[in-house]
Design goal:
Elements: H1 2-20, H2 25-32, H3 41-60, H4 82-98, H5 102-108, H6 114-133
Keywords: Membrane, Transmembrane, Transmembrane helix
Transmembrane segments: 42-61, 82-105, 111-129
Protein name: YeeE/YedE family protein
Length: 143
């Protein structure tokens, strides 16, 4: 049932990305072009997402546990550090250059465009490069 729920959630997300036009990098890039061909539709999509998320969190936090898990998976740190700021800046720069964020690029794979595949290969490569350059501490290393 957990996989069915994940599939359903992914389908809803992909349909939303497709219907809103956010699979089109030109639409995203036009949002950032405030001095030229500015297109505010991305702001409306993000605003709608914030409203849905706000309501969803209010409903979910009333539960003692998620539907398909023993406990909620929450980040262990709330610290704003250089890694968070640098990663956010890198994400934003990549989004502004390519016109894709990883979430919108996955449904866009269905368009068959090579640029989407190249973008996702670069994202995955960045994940592996980060792991090579910044070794993480294992939780069980202290025992």
């Amino acid at each position: 049932m957990r996989l069915v729920y994940a599939l359903f959630t992914g389908l809803i997300f992909g349909i939303g990305i497709a219907v809103s036009g956010m699979m089109n990098p030109a639409k995203v890039l036009n949002f950032f072009d405030v001095a030229g061909t500015w297109d505010p539709s991305l702001a409306f999509v993000m605003g709608g997402a914030v409203i849905v998320t706000f309501i969803g969190y209010r409903l979910v936090w009333r539960r003692s546990a998620p539907l398909f898990g023993r406990r909620f998976q929450l980040p262990g740190s709330t610290e704003v550090d250089s890694k968070l700021i640098g990663g956010s800046a890198l994400f934003g720069i990549g989004w502004g250059i390519a016109g894709f964020c990883p979430g919108a690029a996955l449904p866009a794979l269905g368009t068959g465009r090579w640029e989407v595949a190249l973008f996702l290969v670069a994202v995955v490569g960045g994940f592996f490069l980060r792991r090579l350059l910044t070794p993480t501490k294992r939780a069980d290393a202290a025992t």
